[in-house]
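So, could you explain the following?
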Amino acid sequence: MYAEGLMQKILKKTAVLGVVGLGYVGLPLAVEKAKAGYQVTGFDLQAKKVTLVNAGESYIGDVAGKELRELVEAGRLRAQHGLEGIEGCDCVAICVPTPLDRYAQPDLSYVRASAEETAKRLRHGRLVVLESTTYPGTTEEVVYGALKKAGFEAGKDVFVAFSPERVDPGNRLYHTGNTPKVVGGLTPECTRLAAALYGQVLKGEIHTVSSPRVAEMEKILENTFRSLNIALANEMAVLCHRMEIPVWEVIDAAKTKPYGFMAFYPGPGLGGHCIPVDPYYLTWKAREYGYHTRLIELAGEINSGMPEYVTGRISEMLNRHGKSLSGAKLLLLGLTFKADVGDLRESPALKVLELLEKSGCQLAVHDPFYPELSLGERRYISVDLGPESLEGCDMAVVLTAHSVYDPQMIARHAKLVFDTRNLTKGIRRSGIERL
């Protein structure tokens, strides 16, 4: 009874949709749902985000301000502080953070709180979809656990599914609207309804799986795959340096093979919310089954050790040119975790900065996304990047290869360059070293 009624609302686009969490996942999803013709309310505990959304001002790089304003002005999208009013939503997507705690164990407090608050207010016949990346079993144990405690039964008077977010900040080809979507419900009816909703909203293919656990594991596999391959690239970079072989040229040669190889690149470490975090969800959950995920944990060790490796390479290069790390004037180029994205989460550049700061360096920074940045008690003002700032430092260190950086200018004016991102590819001159 409830299922067919909700299906008709979804297909006729009269269903009212709620999105809990208006961050890098939630806001783009809310925008896509509103663009598809649904009435959408975004819920968030941060009053600033709510105010900005309701003013039509985007704080997410992948959401165009003009598009957001038009949806808000048309009455298709609005934001609400807290979860008051979620009882009026027919379908709710939970898109809240899933960080690690200080012991590298999953912190599900945001998911748990959202599920419990939603369960208190939810009416019969509603659909709840978790999108936050987490370990297999979370949807059933935490989200449905809260709903079941409130008296709901999956597949009958409430419909529950997991559909992992696939956000790649800054990707100009794939975004929330056109990336294929995986959906797994607690029952076939749950899957059918969730798939129907995403099919109405997104242009990407909807791929259904047999359960939320499959969908949860699939998401972990995606990011673990990347973590492992980046670790391999990082380890190759360390070995190639010792063997005096340019690793970037090695990778360029390997990727000419049209099958059996996918290019991954080394760098100063892993950044962003997903790849440095998600594999630890699986290693933690694996212990419950008496299994030690050795390969995944080793990859984590390699990747997390790259900031120290980069700092050591900088010190070695300075020493060869008669300078010590302590007291050296360094200009760090790029602080965000990824080129052309204003996201500092888990950025390895910040870890390199911290290590260099502890070593007694005199640091200047430049990042086009951050005119100024506070880290602990230190405040950094982004310098004007030009001949004067480059010539005034002992070394320029490329940590993030933003497209605004002119490699020729950097190579021409900096005394020394240590390039962790191959920004200076093809430039041959003494005083330039690459990872």
Summary: The two ends are 61 Å apart (CA to CA).
